[in-house]
Amino acid sequence: MSETSAPTPQSHRIRNLVLVVIAIAIIALIVLHLAHRKPPARTPPVQVVTVATVASGQMPVVLKELGTVTPVATVTVLPQLSGYLTDVGYHEGQDVAKGQFLAQIDQRQYEISKQQAQAQLAKDQASLDQARSDLARFTDLAQRKSIAEQTYEDQKFLVQQDAVTASSSTGIVVITQMKPTTVQFTVPQNALSDILQRFGGGAKLAVSAYTSDGDKLIANGTLYAISNQMATSTGTVTLRATFANDDEALFPNEFVNVKLVVNTLTNAVLVPTAAVQTGAPGDYVYLVNPDQTVSVHKVTLGPSDGKNTVITAGLSAGQHVVTDGVDRLSEGAKIRVAAHAASAASGASPAAADTAASAGSASDTTASSVDAPAATPASTASGAKARHAHHASQSQSASDGA
Fold first, then answer.
1. What burial class does residue 386 get, using C-beta atoms within 10 Å of its C-beta: 0-12 exposed, 13-18 middle, 19+ buried?
2. Same-domain check for residues 211 and 271
3. Residue 251 lies in a domain
4. Could you read off the pLDDT of 178-207 as tens digits, one per residue?
5. Cβ–Cβ under 8 Å, residues 68 and 255
6. Which sign, positive or negative, has the C-alpha torsion 121, 122, 123, 128?
7. Residues 44, 333: contact at Cβ < 8 Å?
8. Are residues 146 and 201 in the same domain?
9. Cα–Cα distance between 44 and 11 in angstroms, integer?
10. Percent of the chain, pLDDT > 70?
11. What backbone phi and psi angles, to 5 degrees, belong to 160?
12. What's 318's domain CATH number?
């Protein structure tokens, strides 16, 4: 019968050491696995955006300035005589026309003066007749050397003498021509070359007058005069436009907002203004690629009407740009076009349509409406406003020139 030996303490220590080593190895393998495991790839979310199609159309080149309604003529009527005012044929602010009675001066004193003058005229005529008779007699005597030469010469000067007097006074009424009227405004010197080129070529440049807040159109007219001097203090030049003003909506010295259509670009590349961004690259748009990603695309800007902007370089008609949702985009971002969001940029903005209508109206203006109105007398105006110059006892009749 064999005997089994009991395990020694040394064998227990060896076994425990092996177990510890195995556990450490397992833990090390787990740590190494976790450390070298690649994280799952995160796909960036697709951004929902609104896009628009780059279009080709017309764009008006418009200058927006502040102007002042300037009457063609403002005339102060001066009486030729002094006297008491007996009658006034107008109300202040009333429309007046050529030949209309304005005021009457008390004529009684002038009737007396007329009678006195007629009596004096008769006396002077008699004296003249006597002087002529004496001259004829002296001429005959002078030829025969019967009188002194000085006596004959004195008689000649007596027959030839004459006198003229004139009088003037302050005005009694001021007449302002209301229609047609003009609007005066200034433009910067950098814009002058394009205006001169178009104006010098015979083009009738359309001008629109709006209320001071710019919300309401008052009237349409045409540019007819350009100042021949530049204001050195401001670097601007003064322009003047004429308006028919048949409804008298433009009031003298009124401030208005002026829009001058210098030119109209045709076949221009148009994008919605909302698509244009400005940042470190400069002016750019997010261009939609065929794989439904976007790329930052630098562009060169032209005129804008607020709704659409002209792109002079960097885009072509038919391409697509992002108009809404650009704040969440970056180079190469994936996009998805929102439902009912794909829209084409209009070929002509509403402002362009309004401008075209204004230009059409302006092109029908006759030559007489663009003649230099400064030469038009106030008395021939089809409509004018009269107002008192003062309340002195002076007046005038427009019909008889008194």
1. buried
2. yes
3. yes
4. 889 999 999 999 889 999 999 988 889 999
5. yes
6. positive
7. yes
8. no
9. 60
10. 75
11. -90, -10
12. 2.40.30.170
One-letter amino acid of 276: V
The backbone torsions φ and ψ at residue 148, rounded to the nearest 5 degrees and listed phi first, read: -70, 145
pLDDT at residue 5, as a whole number? 55
For residue 12, is pLDDT > 80?
Answer: no
Q: What length does the chain have? A: 402
- Type of residue at 114: K
How much is the pLDDT for 158? 62
Clarify whether residues 218 and 289 are in a common domain: yes
- Measured between alpha carbons, how far is 386 from 377 in angstroms, rounded to an integer? 14
CA of 21: how far to CAs of 72, 138, 299, in Å? 110, 168, 68
Residue-range definition of the domain harbouring residue 150: 109-160
What is the Cα–Cα distance from 304 to 274, expressed in whole angstroms?
Answer: 11
Amino acid identity of residue 257, one-letter, is N
Q: Which helix (H) or strand (E) holds 38?
A: none
Indicate the range of 42-46, 166-170, 333-337, 365-369 predicted with least confidence: 365-369
What's at 188, amino acid-wise? P
Burial of 334 (0-12, 13-18, 19+ CB in 10 A): middle
Contact 286, 50 (CB under 8 A): no
Instruction: Pick the range with the lowest mean pLDDT from 72-81, 162-171, 324-333.
Output: 162-171
pLDDT class of 365 with cuts at 50, 70, 90: very low
Instruction: For the beta carbon of residue 401, count every other beta carbon within 10 angstroms.
Output: 7
pLDDT of the residue at 133 = 79
Please tell me whether residues 136 and 184 are part of one structural domain: no
Q: What is the mean pLDDT of the chain?
A: 77
